[in-house]
Specification:
Length: 213
Amino acid sequence: MVTPTPGFLPTHVVPRDGLPAWEAPDGLRRTAPLDPLLPVQLLERRGDWGHILCANGWAAWVDGRLLVSVPQGPPESGAQLANTTDPWPLMAQTAEALDQYRRAAEELAAGRIDGETFHRDTQGLRAGLVVDGEAVWLYDVEQERWAYCDGTRVTTYATVSGPALSTATPSGSGQSAAPAQAPSGGGAAPPAGPAGPPGAAGVAPSQAPPGDV
């Protein structure tokens, strides 16, 4: 039985498929992978990278976006209840992108704009949405991830690129700095959670190391 390191307090667990780990946030030197559902403490975030500590004192760097948050304890008496991650802004962004594309496509089909204008009006648009009953998968353009929504909250399902370092000052206590990676079509191992979107073969898990995109 492993004796937890004094002061160890899990903040996250490893996804159900495990997680590759590295000695440094550079994607160069791999170390032992993390076991599925292993409790870890997130010490620091550098861009998409997360510096984690295990109960036995072993530390490593992982793709922090794929760590599954451990629910916090109940709020103190009299404290205001906090909301879970709100899915509505992401749904609104997806609907806006789809509507913008639809309007441009209608203009092109009607002959009111030419192909060059259609290309210009749709350049940079990225959206993804799969609905299957009460389950919804949304593509988050800003964070370059597929997110799962059960109607009340959003959780990361898969990322589409390896973790990237941010130029922002490294932050601690699990607070994420803004990611700075370029869009990529690569896959990523999904965290613990629901199955993927029906027929969404393009979201297949991958164990490619960060930086190999």
